[in-house]
Structures are given as structure tokens and as C-alpha cells.
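Board notes, transcribed. Complex of a protein with zinc ion.
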Amino acid sequence: MSTETSRPRPRPRPAGGRRYVPRRKVCAFCADKTAVIDYKAIGRLRRYVGEHSKIEPRRKTGTCATHQRSISQAVKRARHLAMLPAAAQHEFTW
Ligand SMILES: [Zn+2]
């Protein structure tokens, strides 16, 4: 019987450079105590939509659940008013 699988193996360290330390991102809206996210603040909302105009997930932006819901609502309102693109293809100018 092999004991290969039960032996603790040393984890490979990334060569040169510091190790990955997961760090809790703080919600930008909680930080400056924004209660309501303005759908007209396009500059701010743009940071929460990705390259393909999709709303970025919480794990990427660090937004809290409450504010993520507000962002989602605000982005959708902005899209409805055509202030934000609804899809990547809407941004292209041929
Ligand atoms: Zn928040």
C-alpha cells in the first residue's frame, strides 16, 4: 500500500515575488456612507460594469450585498435611459 497521498507535501512557492494574500476589499459605497446609488452617476457606475457591459460580480468589486443590489438596480435604470450600454456590441462604432 502506498502512503503517497497521505504524506503532506510542501506547497510550491511562487518564485520571486510575494505570496498571494487574500485581502478583504471594502465596499466603496459603505466607505463613504452612500445610502442611495444615483443611476445618473455614470462615471461611478462604469466602474461596476465590465468590458462586455455586464455588471461585475461582488467578488471582483468588493461591494457589499446591499450596495450590489443598489448598483444592479442603478445600472439597469441607466441602461433603460441609454446612459449605459446594455451589451458590448452597443458600444462599437463601425
Ligand atoms: Zn456597501
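The two ends are 66 Å apart (CA to CA). Residues 46 and 84 are 8 Å apart (CA to CA).
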